[in-house]
Each structure stands twice: as C-alpha cells, then as structure tokens.
C-alpha cells in the first residue's frame, strides 16, 4: 500500500514531508480570459504517480543541508521559503540532500507541478491552488506587503499542499519554450512530459508576493534564466516512485 505521506528525517534530526500524488490524465493549460498565449492550447497529459513537497523548501531546510551559515534569502526567517537561489543552486542543494537521505529527490516537472497545484485526482477545478479566491490560499501582491511569509499559513489545496498560488514562484526542471504546448497538442495524449531538450530559460510556476492574482493561477507559466536569483523565486521538492 502506498504511503500518502512520507516523512524524511535527516541525520541532524530535521524532517520534512512529501505528499503522494496519484498518477492520472488531465487537461493542462487554460482558456481563461486572463490566460496568456504561452498557456495555450489546452492539451492532454498523462502522469505516473509521484510525491511532492507539502511545503516550499524553507530556509531551515536549506540550512540543514547547506550549513547553518549558508542562507541566501533576502527575507530571513527559518520558516519562510528560501529565495535568492538560482536554478543551479537548487541542483547543488538537491545533490547534497540526496547524499544525506535514503531517497532521490529532484525538482518537479512543469506538468507534475500543474497537476498537483490543481489538486490531482481530487481536483475541484479551482482557478488557484485550492480556491477560486487567491487570498484564501496564497500571499500575493494585493494582500502581501512586499515580503515572503512563513510557509503554510494559508489554506492548502485538495492534496494538502501549501502556497501553490503565492509566496514565492517555484523553479521547475523543464526548459521553457513559449510554444511548447502547441507541439504537445499535435501529439495527442502526452505521457510524462519533461519539456524541450534545450532552451535559454527554465520554467517557473506559481505566484509570488510581488505578483498580481492573474499570475498566481495554477495554469500560469513563467520563466527565468537559470542563473537568476531573485527574492520572489524558490522551489519545492519532487520525488519519483
């Protein structure tokens, strides 16, 4: 029987939780009036089961792996998400994490991120990660005074995931290409997509304290150069089964 929650305890005693997401097929993308061209067209994606971090990677977890004196975050606080980390920084963290635990963690693919943000098989079709009201589930521009907040203070989505529509944006594994969805749509049902083979920027998902609600929708897709490190961009862990 599959564990719905995995608790990983590190050698130093620090622990974090991963939530099970049962694989399924779903419609990825959006036709909302707010949707940008890069969110279209809607296409069908099938995913295997996986695990996702219940919370964003916090500064406490970052320091537990990278060292107590290593905290790149602009907005300091153990329970706040780590930010000011480049895509390369996330890879360094994950490599070191995997040497200190029993499992093999990674970043989420873009498709996994959207499916989980939508609530997986438990989805109720919300516009944001757990509600049609972004203020219920995320910290974003209108209701957040230009800073991050501790992880997990808002309501979770249907899977029990926090901050999927605000606080900080999240690095994904995939390279970004604007018309990638169009190419997916030509193939019919796409199994476990991992993005294009190369690119200049990486996919970024979720909204942040500095975004308007439009950019906190579960279908919104953004991008940053892999070398970018900014105060509204962090990450969340994924895990294959």
Please describe the topology of this protein.
Elements: E1 5-9, E2 15-21, E3 24-28, E4 43-47, E5 50-53, H1 59-66, H2 87-99, E6 105-107, H3 110-117, H4 134-137, E7 169-175, H5 180-185, E8 190-191, E9 202-205, E10 221-224, E11 233-234, E12 237-240
Parallel strand pairs: 4-8, 7-11
Antiparallel strand pairs: 1-2, 2-5, 3-4, 5-12, 6-12, 7-9, 9-10
Give the CATH H-level superfamily: paralog of FGE (formylglycine-generating enzyme)
Query: What is the total domain count?
Result: 1
Tell me the number of strands: 12
The topology string of helices and strands comes to EEEEEHHEHHEHEEEEE
Largest sheet: 5 strands, antiparallel
Q: At CATH's second level, what is the architecture?
A: Alpha-Beta Complex
Which stretches are poorly predicted, pLDDT < 50 over at least 5 residues? none
Helix content: 10-25%
| Overall pLDDT score | 94
Strand content: 15-25%
The CATH class is identified as: Alpha Beta
Q: Determine the number of helices (DSSP H or I, runs of at least 4 residues).
A: 5
Gap between N and C termini: 13 Å
Shape: globular
**Structural class by SSE content:** alpha+beta
**What integer value in Å does the Rg equal?**
16 Å
Give the CATH topology: paralog of FGE (formylglycine-generating enzyme)
Strand order of the largest sheet: 1-2-5-12-6
């Amino acid at each position: 029987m599959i564990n719905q929650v995995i608790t990983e305890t590190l050698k130093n005693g620090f622990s974090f939780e991963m939530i099970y997401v049962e694989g399924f097929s779903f419609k990825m993308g959006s036709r909302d009036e707010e949707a940008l061209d890069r969110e279209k067209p809607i296409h069908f994606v099938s995913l295997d089961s996986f695990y996702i971090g219940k919370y964003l990677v916090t500064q406490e977890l970052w320091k537990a792996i990278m060292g107590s004196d290593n905290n790149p975050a602009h907005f300091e606080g153990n329970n706040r998400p780590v930010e000011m980390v480049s895509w390369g920084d996330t890879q360094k963290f994950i490599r070191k994490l995997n040497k200190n635990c029993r499992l093999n963690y990674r970043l989420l693919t873009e498709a996994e991120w959207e499916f989980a943000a939508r609530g997986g098989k438990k989805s109720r079709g919300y516009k944001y990660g757990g509600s049609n009201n972004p203020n219920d589930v995320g910290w974003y521009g209108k209701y957040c005074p230009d800073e991050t907040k501790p992880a997990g203070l808002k309501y979770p989505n249907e899977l029990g995931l926090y901050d999927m529509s605000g606080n900080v944006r999240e690095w994904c594994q995939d390279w970004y290409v604007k018309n990638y969805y169009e190419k997916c749509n030509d193939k019919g049902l796409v199994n476990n997509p991992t993005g294009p083979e190369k690119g200049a920027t990486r996919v970024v998902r979720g909204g942040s304290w500095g975004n308007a609600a439009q950019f906190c929708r579960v279908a919104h897709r953004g991008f940053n150069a892999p070398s970018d490190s900014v105060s509204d961009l962090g990450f969340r862990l994924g895990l294959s089964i």
